[in-house]
């Protein structure tokens, strides 16, 4: 009887190991597929400056994005996001139903890497009082996986010298400046819908009181500039913890 139990235990362990190995291989294939897809999209639709470097002109990166061409591939696209300090560069889509792009790539393939997406409440033209972009915290640093470097870096403040996020739409490039970040919970007030002046003021007060950056920038929100929040998971897989960077629109350049 003891031998039978030992054999059953060994068989169970072997089955678990095989199951985990198969999942690891599957995840690796999916990740490689997503990386290839987004690399191809960048090379075809997001043209860099001279010598493949994103040079700056008048305070804006010389990154030419073919939004019109991207719309032919996926009409849900709203913009291209570029964050220089972390070299984050991806198309952004807007979901029409909750979690539509959580595990769907820009090309519409089922993949756990998903897409960078605006939620259903955000403004597709990035002119809302509070818009949000979500993305997975991938271990290899793809998607929004690099955002964790903002709070995990011990020796350098990555946002201090280059706190900008650029949003390329069909007509304009918007420049956002980071002013706060926080580790919070899924569904917290960090994700509040903001539709009027009173809600805006309350939201800003809440963000500043929850700020974990501590840079204490002197910023006036009297004119209520658009807020853009970038959100990803934080901590172990399945955790309800979220890392959110809050930025405000401080510049705009028309695309000609």
CATH class type: Mainly Beta
**Helicity, in percent?**
25-40%
Strand content: 25-35%
Structural class: alpha+beta
Query: Cα-atom Rg, whole angstroms?
Result: 21 Å
The outline comes out as: globular
- Oligomeric state of shown chains: single chain
- Succession of helices and strands: HEEEEHEEEEHHEEHEE
State mean pLDDT (0 to 100 scale): 88
Q: Provide the CATH topology.
A: Sortase, Chain: A
Main pleated sheet? 8 strands, mixed, barrel
In CATH, the homologous superfamily goes by the name Sortase
End-to-end CA span? 80 Å
Per CATH, which architecture? Beta Barrel
- The poorly predicted ranges are none
- Tally of DSSP helical segments: 5
In the residues, how many domains can be counted?
1
The largest beta-sheet arranges its strands as 5-6-7-8-11-12-10-9
Give the total of beta strands: 12
The gist of it:
By secondary structure, the protein is of the alpha+beta class.
Description:
This protein is α+β, with helices and mostly antiparallel strands. The protein has one domain (67-254): Sortase, Chain: A (Beta Barrel), CATH 2.40.260. Helix content is 29%, strand content 27%. The protein contains five helices and twelve strands. It has helices spanning 2-45, 67-73, 148-152, 158-161, 197-210, and strands at 46-47, 56-57, 60-61, 64-65, 77-83, 88-94, 116-118, 130-134, 164-168, 172-185, 227-233, 241-254. The strands form three sheets. The protein has an eight-stranded mixed β-barrel with strand order 5-6-7-8-11-12-10-9. A two-stranded antiparallel sheet has the order 1-4. A two-stranded antiparallel ribbon has the order 2-3. A hairpin with a 2-residue loop joins β2 and β3. The radius of gyration is 21 Å and the shape is globular.
């Amino acid at each position: 009887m003891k031998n039978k139990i030992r054999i059953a235990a060994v068989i169970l362990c072997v089955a678990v190991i095989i199951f985990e190995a198969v999942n690891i291989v599957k995840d690796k294939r999916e990740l490689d597929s997503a990386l290839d897809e987004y690399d191809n999209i960048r090379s075809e639709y997001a043209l860099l400056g001279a010598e493949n470097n994103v040079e700056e002109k008048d305070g804006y990166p010389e990154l030419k994005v073919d939004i019109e061409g991207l719309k032919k591939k996926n009409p849900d696209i709203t913009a291209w996001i570029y964050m220089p300090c972390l070299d984050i560069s991806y198309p952004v889509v807007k979901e029409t139903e909750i979690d539509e792009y959580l595990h769907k790539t820009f090309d519409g393939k089922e993949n756990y890497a998903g897409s960078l997406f605006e939620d259903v409440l955000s403004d597709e033209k990035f002119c809302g009082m509070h818009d949000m972009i979500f993305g997975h915290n991938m271990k290899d640093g793809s998607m929004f996986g690099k955002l964790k470097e903002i709070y995990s870096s011990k020796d350098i403040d990555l946002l201090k010298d280059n706190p900008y996020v650029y949003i390329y739409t069909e007509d304009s490039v918007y420049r956002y400046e980071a002013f706060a970040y926080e580790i919070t919970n899924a569904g917290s007030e960090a994700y509040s819908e903001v539709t009027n002046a009173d809600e805006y003021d309350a939201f800003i007060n809440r963000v500043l009181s929850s700020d974990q950056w501590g840079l204490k920038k002197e910023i006036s929100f009297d004119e209520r500039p658009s807020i853009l929040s970038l959100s990803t998971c934080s901590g172990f897989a399945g955790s309800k913890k979220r890392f959110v960077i809050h930025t405000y629109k401080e510049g705009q350049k028309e695309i000609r």
